[in-house]
Structure formats: C-alpha cells, structure tokens
Amino acid sequence: MTTQAMPFSMAAAAAVPRPRFQNLRGWNQTQSEIQQERVATNMKVAELKAISTKLVHAEGAALLGLLSELRAQLSTRTRPPVQEALESEIPEALVSCFRRGLEAPAALEAAWVVTNLATGTSAQTAHLLELGLGQVLADGLNHPSMAKWPELCDQLLWALGNMAGDPDVRVRDSLLSMGAVGILGRLFSRMPDFEWNVPSRTQVLRSLTWLLSSLCRGSPAPAFEEVACLIDYFVQVVAGSDDERMLAEALWGLTYLIESAESSSEVTDRVARLLRAGYHPGEVAPEPHPVLAKVVACSGVLGHPQNPLVPPAVRLIGSLLRSCDSVALRQTIDAGALGALRVLLLDGNAPLPLRRDVAWALSNLAAGATEYSQKLMLEPDLWEALLMTVDQGLTKELRVESLWCVLNITKRCFAPAGSSDVAMSGRKPEPRQVLSLIAKTLRKETFDSTLNRALLDVAELALRQGEEGVKLKALKATALVRHAQDIGLLDELEAFQRSGEASTQRKANYMIDTWFGSGTENDAPTPKDLKARAGSNTPSAIAGSKSPGRRAAYQFGA
C-alpha cells in the first residue's frame, strides 16, 4: 500500500501526558474477598448489560447520556471493567451506534469509551477489532463535523493508538490490513482546510504521529511496503516541528523503520530514502543535511540528557551509522554526530542505557571502513573518552560496547601490510596503551569467547607494531614485549592456555610461542620467525568479514 507524499506544517504547543490505564489485581486474596469480587463483577455486568440494551435504540440526548455514563464507569485507573464490558456486549452496541451515525458530541463520548476498552489485554483488544470497532473508528475520521471538532479527531486517533500499541503485533497488523496508513494519510491531507486553532491542531498532530509510530513498532516488524511512505511523514515532522512529543515519536518511527531492515543493503536503501525525503530528483540537500543536523541537536548537544528526544535521536544516529553508503555516513558525521555522541558518553548524568546506545553507535562506525576509524581517532577527546569508559564504565554492557569500539579502531589502525584493511595514516593508538588496557581488562572481567578472541587478536597487532624496529635492529619491539610481560599480559595468555575456549587456547598458544617463547628472555621474534609462524594463526574475530554482527541482542523500547 502506498500513499501520496504528505505536506507538513504546524506550530508548537505544550505537551500533555496521556497515561495508558492498566489492570492491577492482588494475588493474596482470601476466599471471602474472591466471593465479594465475584458478586461485584456480576452486579457490574448486569449494570453494563442494561446500558448496552438501551444503547441499541437510544437517540439524541438519551444516547449522549448513556455514553457519558458508560465512559465514566470505564474511566478508572485502578481496574477498568473491560472484561465486564465485553461480557455485557458493550462493544457490539458501540459498533451499532457508530454505524447508525452519531452527532459529534456522542461520537466523542463513544470514542472515549473505546479508548478505555482498548487498555485491556491483547486478547480483549483483538476481540474489539474482530467485532469491527477498529474499522468504525477509522470510518469516524470522515465524520462530517470533523472540520470543527478537533477533540473528536484526537479521541479517535487516541483509541486507534491504544490498539496499535498493543504488545501483540497481530493487533497492529490487523489495523494495517484494513488500510490504516492510507486512511490516516487522507486525513492528514485534509487537515489544512479544517477550522482548528493552533493548540488543537498540534494536539491532533501529536496523536497522529504517535499512532503512526506505533504502526511501525514491534517484532516481527510490519511489512515495509505497508509503512514505507511514513519515512516521508516522519522526516517532515523532524524538519518542521519543535514540539518535543511530536519530534520524539517521529524519531522513534524512523528508528523502528531503519532498525527493522534485515540486511545492510536494506539499511542503506532506507537511509537513502530518509535523506532524499522532501527533495526533487537530482536536487542536492544543503550541507550539513538539515534533517541530520536536527537529529544531532535532538541527541542532547543542545538540550539535557533527560530530554525525551535524546534516546530516539541516539538510536537513530546509531542506525544511520550502520549504512553502507559512504555519502550517508559522511553526511551524518559532518552534521556533528561524533561530537554529540562523545558528550553523551562522558555525561555521568545521562541514563546508563542511553550511554550504552552511544557506545553501540560508535562501535557500528568503527566496524566499518578504515576511514571512519580515522575520523573517530581525529574527533577531539573521543578516543580518550572510550578508554575511560572501558576502564570506569558503571555497567558491563557499557564497558563491553566501548571495548568493541576500541578494538575495532585499533584493528583498523594496526592493519598489517597486505591485509584486507588499509593501514591508516594520521593519529593512531599508542601500542603500550592498548596492551595495558587489554591486560587490565582481562584481569578484571570475564567475557564470551568471541570478545576474548578479539582482545587477543588486537594484542598481537599491538605487539607487531614493533616489527619494523626488529628489521632495523632497534629495540622497539623488545621494549613492547617486555612491557607486555610487565603488565601481566603473559599471565593472561597462560590462563587462556589452561581454561580458554578452543579458539582462544590456540591463539594464546600461538602468541606465547611467537612472542614469549624460547630464546633469550624478552627477545622479540625476528621477521623470519614471524613469517614462519604466521601460518599457525587463525582468522581475526573482529571487524571485517569475520566480524560478529554489531548485535541485535539488546531489546529497546520507547
């Protein structure tokens, strides 16, 4: 399904929180309490059944009164009687009312009732859709009074949003299959002609953006062709709005659409569509790209880490840095992404999951081409920030993500001649510093076999930085080997010999034999030794074709 491109224009207004009700029930009830609850439930069902019967035939003021009473009974935060309403056939009565046609005030009350009904369990919400409530809500967006009743439009969108946000993605998919995206697109195209004031228009746009973002969320992701056009809408929101709630939902929507890509080529295609949105074919966006500059600003450089814009902005930057398109990567970096991420990585007041996402975004970039590792090294204070986080990060997840970034940068910097990586010019990590970090990290923590192997790979690359010194009969390599022994790296290698996984055992054996083996104590291997022993090495576990994916293990949410 496709919809036409949707123009976007609005003004800002204050955010209004919209909590979703929950069912809370105690588990330590006595038999007497259970019996009392059953009696109360039966009474409630009978009461609601009476209302349901009257709704089918009521009109005018009587109908409005019944709907208002029903809305009041369901608007409780402790335990909305959703199941009782279902048993009383309230949803069927509401469908009948909507299909008969309702005046705007009655339609508003009915939509409010459905909004509260849609806060129940996934099974209850799915039942509402089966009865046709989703369709009548969507049809209600064509109400003849819509142009003068923004409150009605907002309530209908809110009810649909509660459905779309259900944890069971089959509910979301049911809305998509009935053409929700096209219906909402047509509503949006008519909105400029509606007689709404700015605060009302802004509130409706918030609800619309929240609903559209929810339609992109969930695992498994929706079919991309169903929601692809929403990239254009979310980009227009990012470019044209300064409203925090609306911006946050648009950023989450873009993040969901890019993160759900199943291959690097799909990521690249979706990022390219994001960057082209709003421009005619052949038209070139200004530098820095306005949308990317706005995303970077939302990441906290111009705000506070607790701002609701920061988490989705950081996640979106991380997704953009997964692109295989060099132009998209350059534009993201030129927009100031690296500086923004460095600030957040070092901000002790930023939430730890957010700082972990920052490290993940940087490690995505470091796992790419060598030129991006060079940009990471040249970004002021970023390398030092990563080393500090590996050493002092408050959670293991944060330290591990930062460590992956350090290892991938170092691997690119220390790439030997003839490898698949092109050795970097310019600033490089200091081999002694890298060896000290690896030895200290191995001494303090335990990791999975993949990361252990990556640490040993980089340790060997650091030791090899003295290889040229051996050729010139200098003492540089000997000093590196001695330093490795002094800081306890040899002890860690011997520990892997005894208890490491097969791959790390082989790597440890190779390194001990190559760098710390027989001969005069602390002597570095000769170039001939290195060449002879190279065949016993095993492929690298980091960055490049052998790299583990920069991982989908974390589960995030808005």
The residue fraction in helices comes out at 55-70%
Indicate the radius of gyration in whole angstroms.
30 Å
Summarize the main sheet.
Answer: none
Average pLDDT confidence is: 84
Order of helices and strands: HHHHHHHHHHHHHHHHHHHHHHHHHHHHHH
Count of individual beta strands: 0
> In angstroms, what separates the terminal alpha carbons?
26 Å
Count of separate DSSP helical elements: 30
Beta-strand content bin: under 5%
* Inertia-based shape: elongated
Structure commentary:
- This protein has 558 residues and is mostly helical.
- The chain is 64% helix and 0% strand.
- α19 packs across α20.
- The longest helix is centred in the N-terminal third of the chain and has 25 residues.
- It starts with 30 loop residues before the first helix and ends in a 25-residue tail after the last helix.
- The N terminus and C terminus are likely disordered.
